[in-house]
């Protein structure tokens, strides 16, 4: 059965659209969120094992110990991907499976798992897109300072080479990091993610060392023969609440620097913006940024992954405490969401994605883009008949695909779209309480059920477009 997208407003139904030939249709997951098998086959502990065991950090004390048990059910999951017609699958590799201590001895059984998964995908004609780091840092590295120290960036480049040596003959696309914004600012700024540190200076040091890790790994992968090298960022379109108010415009510029340009500019232009460096210098010295670092971070990439969910609107508000995940944002207030929101409380504004893609195209010309994540959390579960009617998710994805198409029409070099997520999973601090999957997972039985959105997405892929 194919779900029909019905408009909830009085607007006429939107016209059908077709995507360019070769547009890549995929779905994405991440290791800690789905694999489980947290203590199997020599895997070492990660910061998320520690964090999720720390009382009060994760909803209801949930952990990724079992998650979707994908480590054991990967073949069944790949068959499901094939049934959906996915051309590509984006997954991440758990560093602690490969080097349980983050440096030193390699755990071959960890590599074996990704070898099996890769072969299973290729056997079904699905192109594997690998992310080397999606937040599960080996705990030993955190004990030595984590992303706040330079050694972690150097260790990451070594780990990248180890994985490439084993899988480089079969993996086409290599993504270094997923969303360094989250690792730096949620991990070391607000502390709502592992390792749970609240220290603005460390947050900025982490941002730089993540940038450096990307550059060092990109260089090493290129030297080893990798062809398609990328990073995934989660840029946010930050708008002034009142565009006519210079103070609001200045507030938006500051947040844009901390959220976006601190990553984009060294990677794609080879230098941190002056205003961002000035801002960081108000919080910590700049000794952690060494001569030559920006050139390393500027290593050429072939593709830039964009994860998009929601926009931000900010206003200057003297006395406002600011947000810990935007260090130094005192005096700035974030407008609460307006209009419809997802189960995460995130405002739904597809046109913001079009504007964001156009802006990246304008400010960083020549960069090929891929939507590596987009989707929505909604709670719908199976009816008595065993179906999951998640119409709101279909509407969300439909609207964001139209936004992508608008960007394509404006000349943006957008190569594909990956739905987040293939299946319900461990949503970090929210545990299993938030469901992003187009496939429903019953965590008691581990049964997978295609939601209406998955059946609808299958038709979108088949048609290479929307009705
Ligand atoms: O689940 C996360 C994913 O791991 C990274 N991007 C955002 C998703 C939804 O919060």
Could you describe the 3D structure shown?
The protein has a single domain (23-238, 266-308, 343-443), classed as Glycosidases (TIM Barrel, Alpha-Beta Barrel). Strands 2-3-4-5-6-8-11-12 form an 8-stranded parallel beta barrel, surrounded by 4 helices. Strands 7-9-10 form a 3-stranded mixed beta sheet, covered by helices on one side. The two termini are 15 Å apart. Strand 11 (369-373), helix 14 and strand 12 (414-420) form a beta-alpha-beta unit. It has helices spanning 31-34, 47-52, 70-84, 95-98, 108-123, 139-143, 150-167, 180-188, 200-223, 246-268, 274-281, 293-297, 350-363, 391-409, 452-463, and strands at residues 17-18, 24-28, 88-92, 127-133, 173-178, 228-233, 238-240, 303-307, 312-316, 332-334, 369-373, 414-420, 439-441, 448-450, 465-466. The protein is of the alpha/beta class. The chain has 15 helices and 15 strands. 5-hydroxymethyl-3,4-dihydroxypiperidine binds at residues 30, 33, 179, 307, 373, 420, 427, 436.
Keywords:
single chain; 467 residues; alpha/beta; TIM Barrel; eight-stranded parallel β-barrel; three-stranded mixed beta sheet; 15 helices; disordered N terminus; binds 5-hydroxymethyl-3,4-dihydroxypiperidine
Radius of gyration: 21 Å
pLDDT under 50 segments (min length 5)?
1-9
Q: Number of helix segments?
A: 15
Task: Give me the CATH architecture, please.
Answer: Alpha-Beta Barrel
Principal-axes shape call: globular
Bound molecules: 5-hydroxymethyl-3,4-dihydroxypiperidine
Structural class, by secondary structure, is alpha/beta
Largest sheet: 8 strands, parallel, barrel
Q: How many structural domains in the coordinates?
A: 1
Strand sequence of the main sheet, in spatial order? 2-3-4-5-6-8-11-12
* Termini Cα gap: 15 Å
DSSP strand count: 15
Q: Into which percentage range does the β-strand content fall?
A: 5-15%
Fold-level CATH name: TIM Barrel
Encode the helix/strand succession as letters: EEHHHEHHEHHEHHEEHHHEEEHEHEEEHE
Average predicted local confidence, pLDDT: 97
Oligomer: single chain
Helix content: 25-40%
CATH superfamily: Glycosidases
CATH class annotation: Alpha Beta
């Amino acid at each position: 059965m194919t779900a029909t997208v019905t408009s909830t407003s009085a607007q006429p139904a939107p016209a059908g659209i077709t995507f360019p030939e070769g547009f890549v249709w995929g779905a994405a997951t991440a290791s800690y969120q789905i694999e489980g098998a947290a203590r199997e086959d020599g895997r070492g502990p990660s910061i998320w094992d520690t964090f999720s065991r720390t009382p009060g950090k994760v909803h209801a004390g949930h952990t990724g110990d079992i998650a979707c048990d994908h480590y054991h059910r990967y073949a069944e999951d790949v068959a499901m991907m094939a049934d959906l017609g996915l051309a590509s699958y984006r997954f991440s590799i758990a560093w602690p499976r490969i080097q349980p201590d983050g440096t030193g001895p390699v755990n071959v059984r960890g590599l074996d798992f990704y070898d099996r998964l890769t072969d299973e995908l290729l056997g079904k004609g699905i192109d594997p897109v690998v992310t080397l780091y999606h937040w599960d840092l080996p705990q030993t590295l955190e004990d030595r300072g984590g992303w706040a120290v330079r050694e972690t960036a150097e260790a990451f480049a070594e780990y990248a080479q180890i994985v490439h040596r084993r899988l480089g003959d079969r993996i086409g696309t290599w993504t270094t990091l997923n969303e360094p914004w989250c690792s730096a600012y949620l991990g070391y700024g607000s502390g709502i993610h592992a390792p749970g540190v609240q220290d603005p200076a460390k947050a900025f040091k982490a941002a730089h060392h993540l940038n450096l890790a990307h550059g060092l790994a990109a260089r090493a992968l290129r030297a080893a023969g990798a062809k398609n090298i990328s990073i995934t960022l989660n840029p946010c379109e930050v708008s002034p609440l009142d565009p006519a108010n210079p103070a609001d415009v200045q507030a938006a510029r500051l947040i844009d620097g901390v959220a976006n340009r601190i990553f984009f500019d060294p990677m794609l232009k080879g230098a941190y913006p002056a205003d961002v460096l000035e801002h960081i210098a108000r919080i910590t010295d700049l000794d952690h940024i060494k001569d030559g670092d920006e050139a390393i971070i500027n290593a050429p990439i072939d593709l830039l992954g964009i994860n998009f969910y929601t926009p931000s609107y900010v206003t200057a508000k003297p006395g406002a405490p600011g947000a810990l995940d935007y260090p130094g944002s005192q005096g700035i207030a974030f407008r609460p969401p307006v209009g419809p929101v997802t189960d995460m409380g995130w405002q739904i504004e597809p046109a913001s994605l079009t504007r964001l893609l156009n802006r990246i195209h304008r400010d960083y010309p020549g960069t090929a883009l891929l939507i590596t994540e987009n989707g929505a959390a909604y709670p719908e579960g199976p009816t008595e008949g065993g179906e999951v009617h998640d119409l709101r998710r279909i509407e969300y994805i439909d609207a964001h695909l139209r936004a992508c198409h608008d960007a394509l029409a404006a000349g943006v070099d957008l190569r594909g779209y990956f739905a987040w997520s293939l299946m319900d999973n461990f949503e970090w601090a929210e545990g299993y309480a938030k469901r992003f999957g187009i496939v429903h997972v019953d965590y008691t039985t581990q049964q997978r059920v295609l939601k209406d959105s998955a059946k609808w997405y299958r038709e979108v892929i088949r048609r290479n477009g929307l009705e």
